[in-house]
Amino acid sequence: MSGEARRKTSGAAVLAAFLRRDFREALTYKFSFLSSVTGILLSSATFYFVAKLVPAGVPSLGPFGGDYFSFAVVGVAFAGLLGMFQEGLAAVVRSAQLSGTLEALLVTPAGVPTILFGSSLYSLVFQVFRTVLHLAVALAFFGLTLGRVNGAGVLAVGVLTILCFLSVGVLSASFILVYKTGNPFSWILGSVSGVLGGVVFPVALLPPWIRWVSSLLPVTYALDGMRKSLLASASFAEVLPDVAALAVFDALLLPLSVVFRLAVRKAKKDGTLSHY
Amino acid sequence: MTTGPAIFAENLIKRYPIFRGFREIILKPLGRRTVTALDGLDLDVGRGRVFCLLGPNGAGKTTLVKVLATLVLPDGGRAMVEGHDVAREPGPAKRAVGYAVSDERSFYWRLTGRQNLEFFGALYGLRGRARERRIDELLRIVGLDEAADLRFNGYSTGMRQMLGFARALLADAAILLVDEPTRSLDPQAADRIRSFLREELAGRQGKTILWATHDLGEAADCADDIAVISRGRIRLRGPAASLAAGGRSSLRQAYEQAVNESEEKP
Q1: Which residues of A touch B134 (CB under 8 A)?
Q2: Contact of A114 with A15, CB cutoff 8 Å
Q3: Which residues contact B174 (CB under 8 A, 6 or more apart)?
Q4: pLDDT digits (tens, 9 = 90+) for A169-194
Q5: How far apart are CA A182 and CA B26, in angstroms?
Q6: Residue B72 contacts by C-beta under 8 Å, 6 or more apart in sequence?
Q7: Does residue A151 belong to the interface with chain B, where contact is any CB pair within 8 Å?
Q8: What is the distance between the alpha carbons of residues A215 and A223, in angstroms, rounded to a whole number?
Q9: What's the mean pLDDT in A208-230?
Q10: For the ranges A123-137, A154-168, B1-15, B22-36, which has the lowest average pLDDT?
């Protein structure tokens, strides 16, 4: 074996290779970026006009600055980002199963976590870019009203949220690796979060008999903390309850990420790595 | 470099679970049905040898190759490549083996041949100028230097197979595993691949090649050693020079006898 081949695979170099691969592939789809920007414009325009139906001073919007358009845009932009963190890993595993590249990746000396994270890195980075673009478009063309932005709050809520949703993403990817389809994490968290997580309306509007479900969903705290930090000029102390709740979700979910190694082992044991 | 055989397997066992329907799961929730792919297989392949593994469909050829490539975990026994246990030391084992995945879907079709190799090269730890040099060298060896910057989806089946060899050679591993490399190729392309494996990789580069195939003629022409696998065990093995001494017909006769005996006395 040559000296070059004996060299250990560096995590950063491997992640950079995944980014470069996916960027090169994305360049071959010429209209993908254009359709993405068009979607952002249409979504912003829709909520801009819906917001005209919502009178100013609605009490349930008070904690978030009082403007419905800003409330909805932040909700939709960040829900898209969280959805990608939650489902992106499972999507790349499924895609590698279907395209047939999974075995070719797993015979290389690159570590399994590096392969999993690297495979979804471009999608995650691109979704962060889309979220920023979404907010920029809303700010420039539709009158998004930001408050005095609490940078520390945005950072704390953002990092804890990403860790939480990545953990759910790893669980989803593990399920897909073994069972191929029918991911229950995506179904339960994805569909329930859309209705009960406060994406396009405040959870305060929900009837009390179901509002308690919202308090079990990480998306509720993620959006609450992010809106307060971006729109309502809240201090760090005011977003601390959201930060604490997200930290508890992280403490519960992060250790479960080890299940991905077990899933790879089970797929190798069952001989189903290349099945789809 | 370790001494001893390049590839070694002892009492290797692999049983796959069989899919169970809802009715069976409800009636026997703890039941488990399996099909045996490897049934106590013993094997050793000497360094620098071209070892052809012949066998009917479902004999265990692909399972053995995937166990050696660390893609399937054995249920019993042990398998070693270059002295590394594939189940206990998968990292060093992966570095000792190049697996030419014959599935053309294992590439990124919208990238060029070179871009595919650049990506997989990074996963093998190759970087910068060293990676570029290695890729240029491999593209030249497999005869794809002029097609390197064409998209993979424009390659013929033979070119895709050749790019698979280039990828398997990126790490310059001592052992190459190939599983039916000439399947679905026209006779000329198949001949090119046979002579590439035999003359370039085994002859010039001194690789150990484990070559799973259905094609008796291919084995007779290319192998140093031949083994017949059936029902998960090696039923016959020997130097190609002796098994195919009487030509392809004598190899066919020996093959059929070994397979038939395994079916009569499993």
Answers
A1: 4
A2: yes
A3: A1, B1, B6, B47, B82, B96, B207, B208
A4: 999 889 988 888 777 777 777 778 88
A5: 20
A6: A268, A269, A271, A273, B14, B63, B66
A7: no
A8: 12
A9: 93
A10: B22-36
Q: Which amino acid is at B123?
A: L
**φ, ψ of residue B182 in degrees (nearest 5):** -105, 10
What's the complex ipTM?
0.89
CB contact under 8 A, A25 and B170: no
- The answer on pLDDT for B156 being more than 90 is yes
Distance CA A166, CA B202 (A): 46
Residue type (1 letter), A267: A
- Report d(CA B179, CA B99) in Å as an integer: 9
H-state helical runs in chain A? 3-6, 11-27, 32-51, 68-99, 102-106, 112-141, 151-179, 184-185, 192-196, 208-214, 218-231, 236-253, 259-270
The Cα A265–Cα A269 span in angstroms is 6
> pLDDT tens-digit profile of A234-245?
999 999 999 999
> What are the pLDDT digits (tens) for A3-14?
444 455 678 899
Q: Is B66 on the interface with A (CB under 8 A)?
A: yes
Give chain A positions within 8 Å (CB) of B16: 270-271
Verify whether the Cβ–Cβ distance B125 to A10 is below 8 Å: yes
